[in-house]
Amino acid sequence: METLSGQLRGSVALGSLMLVLLAAPAGAQQQGRRAATAPAANDAPVVLDQINVQGEGQPGGALLNGPTTTRVTRQELDREQITSLTDLSNRVEAGITFNRTTNSLNIRGLDGARVLTTIDGIRQPFLVDTRVTRGAQNAFDFDSLSTLDLLRGGSGGSTLGSGALGGALAVRTLDPEDLIRNGRNYGVLTKTGYDSTDRAWFGSAAVAAKMGNTSVLFQGGFRDGHEIDNKGNYKAIGATRTAPNPSDFNQYNFLAKIYQQVGDHRFGIQGEFFKRADRVQTRTSTVSLTGNFRPGSYQTGEDVERNRVSLSYDYVVPGSFFDEAHAVAYWQRLKRNDLARAYRYTSIVGPYIRDNENEQNAYGFNGHVIKSFQTGALTHRLTAGTELRMSSLEQYSAGLDNCPARPASGSFTGAFTTCNNLFTNQADQPKVDGKLVGLYVHDEIGMLDNRLRVTPGVRFDWYEEAPQNTPAYTNSGSRPVGLPPSSSDNAWSPRIRFEYDILKNAPVVKDVTVFAQWAKTFRAPTADELYGRFGGPSTYLRAGNPTLRPEIGNGIDVGLRFGDKQLGGSITYFHSNYRNFIDTYQSQAPGVGGLYPQGGITTFRNIPKAEIQGVEINGQYAFAPNWLVRGSFAYTRGMNKSDHTFLNSIPPMQGIVAIAYGTETWGAEVSTKLAGKRDDVAATTGSAQGFRAPGYAIFNASAWWRPMPQIADLEFQVGVYNIFDRKYFDAVNVPTGVLAQARDYYSEPGRTVKATMKYQF
């Protein structure tokens, strides 16, 4: 922490000072943070978002409850024009980043499979393989969401289980109650707009109705656009190009829900479909004017599809045998296809086609109960639950080349030597059947009239990944010999939290609470890390390691939160140690002979120790009628303690400061996103150091107008982002190895405009 002040640019320091002086939103149990709802007419004081206590009003919310959890509501998503995780990190939540290279969310310097994503309480797998290291954590439509909970740190592992090492993103889709208002039996919400960031048109519509004890909801949305802009303007062919590759995408989703109320019990059935298809015309270093692949003859793509059907049960009757009971049984399929369609002009002349598919089908059950009771002077809020899951993961690469049948020796020679590197129509890993059993229990114990709360809890997990033999794997070019062994382990994820209310209903700052918690969590290896196998004799091999141990996190959070929706804040210091960190390494160097002389052997190993620590501040202050200032700040530092190098997934110091004004008919906001430079990076390839990103400050402005608030809930909104057209780099979003393109290719968008129209009745 001694380098904290030295790393801030002047603008970041100023923004941080404003955050401390103006306070920050109360975390976890005080979530209302924005001037998102209009105040009454005639310049009455601004009305802030309703404070959302985690665990209230949302099935499964109790599993995310804690001082490091923040909630973004549907109203705030609309007000801040948030339609992606990148928008969320640039306008609301400092310290998180969405990595578009890997399609993963970064929380507290950890990303990929180390951050758990759930949709309506259902865990989402991070599908990667040896060919493409991209997941699908963003396989949902923001316009279908009711709330978004962001849990920082590993405390969620004691309820959510494996994968919540760095934190968790838990999104909830719309329910009928989100649309039905003002005593009506129906509700409609429509939205359309345009975003110049990727020249995308988007729209959505949702309708809900209630008929007696039956309620239904139908929602659908689309988004069609092109490549994400940057500040590169050199449209050459090859490695000197700085402009993005031309691309097109289309995305659409459909959501349906039916609920039946039977006395105090609510039964439901939900169906969801999401698909996104991207197509890219490659103009970068893969192609050249006279090379094997040429402009116009090399197209790549990615299709991501998610389907689920679920049955839910909800019961909320305080004072009964159980105060709450929630359960969901589901089937879910997540499929990702990575595509290439090209033509070779020199080596192995002819078509080159690839369709690399990963598909996971999962069946599961999640359920928990909550019971409040008293023993003497102590109050208790007991939560107990389970997670049961079975999955089947298959990978297959289909393709076409102008290569002859492989010779008996196993290696091509002469004019067809290049065919040694063309592995297709095979599986790069065996089919993997997975099982997961999780059990957890927590008890929030209140003392001293509930001013002191102690919450011990623990979760036990057992998992197994069992490879299954398939001809596509057995006959693959990497020549596997038999099946690798199953990977099975168990883990305990204990947590204990202390909270003490120093002040209750005090003047000015209202409540003041100090908290401290310790938590232990784990992350099981992915199927690719265990069993991936790609390559072949005389070339190279990328191989999994079936003996990998789970990653283990051990961390503390200490902090203070105070105030209410008028003036509130929180500050948290966190420190986590990690064991068995999974990392790639070269077990056999290239060019040393053996079966893989071309590229050697790359595999996975457990790093003994890593460490991440930092500070987070969030806040808001309604300092005058109709006015609100808000902000957040995050500083994170991470080290590989085994070889004393920096972790390149750590983002730079960041801050967000915004000031907003709102009346019943119109409002506006001006904000800035600040980031310090990132010099603490480790070498990734030989002595080549990772990307050093300069600091930056970008400014945004938005305004909204409701022309007829007394007649219709019609709203127009426009936002201008990066107003001064600043060239900047998101450090986490740049590849950590040697850059294949000129530097400006990795820059972020310049000035962009987003316009939306929303109508609700």
Report the portion of residues in β strands: over 45%
Oligomeric assembly: single chain
By secondary-structure content and strand pairing, the structural class works out as: mainly beta
Mean pLDDT across all residues, rounded?
87
Rg for CA atoms:
26 Å
Please give the share of residues in helix. Answer: under 10%
Number of helices: 6
Keywords for this structure?
761 residues, mainly beta, 22-stranded antiparallel β-barrel, 5-stranded mixed sheet, 34 strands
List the topology elements.
Blueprint lengths: L9 H13 L46 E5 H6 L5 H7 L4 E4 L4 E4 L7 E5 L2 E3 L20 E8 L4 H4 L6 E7 L12 E10 L4 E12 L2 E13 L20 E16 L2 E17 L16 E19 L7 E21 L5 E26 L2 E23 L30 E17 L4 E17 L2 H4 L12 E20 L3 E14 L3 H5 L1 E3 L4 E4 L7 E13 L3 E22 L11 E25 L2 E14 L4 E2 L7 E9 L3 E10 L7 E3 L2 E2 L6 E10 L7 E9 L30 E9 L1
Parallel strand pairs: 4-7, 22-25
Antiparallel strand pairs: 1-6, 2-3, 4-5, 6-7, 8-9, 8-34, 9-10, 10-11, 11-12, 12-13, 13-14, 14-15, 15-16, 16-17, 17-18, 18-19, 19-20, 20-23, 21-22, 23-24, 24-25, 25-26, 26-27, 26-28, 28-29, 29-32, 30-31, 32-33, 33-34
Give a written overview of the molecule.
The protein has 761 residues and is mainly β. It is 5% helix and 52% strand. The chain has helices at residues 10-22, 74-79, 85-91, 157-160, 471-474, 527-531; strands spanning 69-73, 96-99, 104-107, 115-119, 122-124, 145-152, 167-173, 186-195, 200-211, 214-226, 247-262, 265-281, 298-316, 324-344, 350-375, 378-400, 431-447, 452-468, 487-506, 510-523, 533-535, 540-543, 551-563, 567-588, 600-624, 627-640, 645-646, 654-662, 666-675, 683-685, 688-689, 696-705, 713-721, 752-760. The longest helix is centred in the first third of the chain and has 13 residues, at 10-22. The relative contact order is 0.15.
